Amino acid sequence: MIAFILLQAGKQPTSEAAKKFAELDPLGIGMTVIGVSIVFLSLMLLYLTFKNIAKLYSIDYKKRFARKKVQSGELVEVVSEPTGELGAAIGMALFLYKNEMHDHENTFLTIKKVTKTYSPWSSKIYGIRKQLK
């Protein structure tokens, strides 16, 4: 397309590649088709990727990687489910760890009134609040 604009303006392209491209595709239609097809193919690839990524989340990995035990010739699936006691122990450990990270210090809050010097910027408010007669 740039080569076409340069040829229409009366200027010759400077590089050999641009000259060759201008001879092969003087109107830029081929370049347009290639560019649009690349964009649509990349959008299609992104669409298919995002559409099929939900299937990865629906796979039950516990069943897929569960250890199996052999008892008297039969396969028995062994799944170790987390118990309530395990969750309570982990939660308590995290709670205690977070509480140790904080420093307990005495806090004093002091409020002092600071007098400000006169500023003409603050006096404009009085001119705005005057009632009209």
Overall mean pLDDT: 76
Measure the end-to-end span: 70 Å
Shape, please? flat
Please state the CA-atom Rg, rounded to the nearest Å: 38 Å
Provide a descriptive summary of the structure in words.
- The structure is a single chain.
- This protein is mainly alpha-helical.
- It has a domain at 1-58.
- It contains six helices and two strands.
- The chain has a two-stranded antiparallel ribbon.
- A hairpin with a 2-residue loop joins β1 (67-71) and β2 (74-78).
- It starts with a helix and ends in a 5-residue tail after the last helix.
- The mean pLDDT is 76.
Please write out the topology.
Elements: H1 2-8, H2 16-24, H3 29-58, H4 61-64, E1 67-71, E2 74-78, H5 84-101, H6 120-128
Antiparallel strand pairs: 1-2
Produce a short descriptive summary:
By secondary structure, this protein is mainly α. The protein has helices at residues 2-8, 16-24, 29-58, 61-64, 84-101, 120-128; strands at residues 67-71, 74-78.
Attribute tags:
two-stranded antiparallel ribbon, mainly alpha, 58% helix, 2 strands, 133 residues, single chain
